[in-house]
């Protein structure tokens, strides 16, 4: 998914001005940010559901038993991809021991995945097995294939798009915890400001 260039202005000087300004006045930009992120995630989730529906309509329908076996392969593959991406990240940061421990877990998962793949292969005709069985990533709406290799899965789960959506979802959850109280506070402040303006207008009319 290509989002293109961000239309917003990214300027460290403006950020410094904002941080200085918020020391004297609350502009409630966190509410605007939450609403923007919510819209962004809602759009992503809508694409995810649309992709799932499209796959259900176009992919060969599997029996409940075979579908369960396919999902097991998918789940193990995702675990491998996530752990492999994490292990590579730790290794790059110099945390070799932690990286090697994760790689041991990856090897164990690979064995379990190979066994799950054999069960899945034996449960259907060879012609059907060769077809790419897809699922949709619940985080970023990208397609993942049951025959994707470890490298592609690691690139996906360790990629900027997937990790970016994780950060967005985490930040959105964080902002949601305070948004209602913040909205109420903003409403109260705006009401006070309106009353103050009306009072000034009334005083001006009286003195005329």
Automatic annotation (TrEMBL):
**Any Pfam family matching the protein:** LUC7
Q: Which domain of life is it from?
A: Eukaryota
GO MF entry, a single one: mRNA binding
Alphabetical keyword list: Coiled coil
User: Does the keyword field hold Protein biosynthesis?
Assistant: no
| Coiled-coil regions listed in the entry | 41-119
- Might you report a single GO cellular component term? U1 snRNP
Q: Name one GO biological process term.
A: mRNA splice site recognition
PANTHER family reported in the protein's UniProt record:
RNA-BINDING PROTEIN LUC7-RELATED
What family does this chain come from, according to its entry?
Answer: Belongs to the Luc7 family.
State what protein this is by name: RNA-binding protein Luc7-like 2
Native organism is: Scylla paramamosain (Mud crab)
Please spell out the taxonomic lineage of the organism that makes this protein.
Answer: Eukaryota, Metazoa, Ecdysozoa, Arthropoda, Crustacea
């Amino acid at each position: 998914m290509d989002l293109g260039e961000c239309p917003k202005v990214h300027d460290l000087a403006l950020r410094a001005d904002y941080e200085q300004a918020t020391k004297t006045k609350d502009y409630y930009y966190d509410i605007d940010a939450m609403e923007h992120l919510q819209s962004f995630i809602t759009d992503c989730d809508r694409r995810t559901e649309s992709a799932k529906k499209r796959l259900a309509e176009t992919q060969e329908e599997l029996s409940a038993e075979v579908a369960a076996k396919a999902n097991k392969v998918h789940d193990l593959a995702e675990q491998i991809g996530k752990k492999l991406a994490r292990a590579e990240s730790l290794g790059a940061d110099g945390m070799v021991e932690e990286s090697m421990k994760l790689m041991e877990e990856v090897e164990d998962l690979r064995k379990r995945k190979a066994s799950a793949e054999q069960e899945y292969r034996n449960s259907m005709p060879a012609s059907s097995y060769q077809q790419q069985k897809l699922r949709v990533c619940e985080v970023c709406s990208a397609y993942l294939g049951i025959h994707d290799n470890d490298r592609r899965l690691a690139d996906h789960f360790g990629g900027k798009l997937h990790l970016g959506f994780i950060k967005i979802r985490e930040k959105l959850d964080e902002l949601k915890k305070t948004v209602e109280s913040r909205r109420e506070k903003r409403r109260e402040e705006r009401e006070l400001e309106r009353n103050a303006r009306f009072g000034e207008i009334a005083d001006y009319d009286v003195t005329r």
